[in-house]
Amino acid sequence: xxxxxxxxxxxxxxxxxxxxxxxxxxxxxxxxxxxxxxxxxxxxxxxxxxxxxxxxxxxxxxxxxxxxxxxxxxxxxxxxxxxxxxxxxxxxxxxxxxxxxxxxxxxxxxxxxxxxxxxxxxxxxxxxxxxxxxxxxxxxxxxxxxxxxxxxxxxxxxxxxxxxxxxxxxxxxxxxxxxxxxxxxxxxxxxxxxxxxxxxxxxxxxxxxxxxxxxxxxxxxxxxxxxxxxxxxxxxxxxxxxxxxxxxxxxxxxxxxxxxxxxxxxxxxxxxxxxx
Length: 276
What we know:
4% of the residues lie in helices and 48% in strands.
């Protein structure tokens, strides 16, 4: 089960954010999630499937001018939300900055919010709330549930694992990769608990995305892109090395109804792909 963070952790976010009204951009998502017993831990079949996939790159999208892309998610079909980590060497304040930037499909900035000292990485939207992670002073991680209209915290939880890296929403659950534990954890927004954990094919999962039918996970250690299918998230395919191989690099994934992208955080560019 996932523990609710104390009021001290929750109030930290409230103090760091200013109320902000965004354009009403919420739309409903409708993908059926799988049913699981609370606390279930599943191991994917470690025997590599025979199916190998390849893809063609279609387009690129510039996400930021400086810094690191620490998280990314679509919020409806017309708004892209990017968590930007700006190092002190290039930030205007001279301190490390973390900001959440809302952009339209043309790249124009709709809104920008400062989350320095609170958020660190990962971003997902479940149709109602934004989710992201930050680090506590004791070295643990915090999972934040953030109101979209005010950008203030609704609730804060003790995050599972030690190093949550990325998130995605499958229409019912928020999935969180944990690179140190080699798994993907499933958070249920209704019960506010981790109800399933899946051990991934690689040993250092980072990016994660849901395409409506399958889950996709990148691995920083192996450099590969894996497809997990079915309610048990079994390893069903691997993208070939000619199309995708980024060993030793962190790669985020981004998906929405019309397109699938991968993002190398340091390069600040999303690459659209189409599977052959």
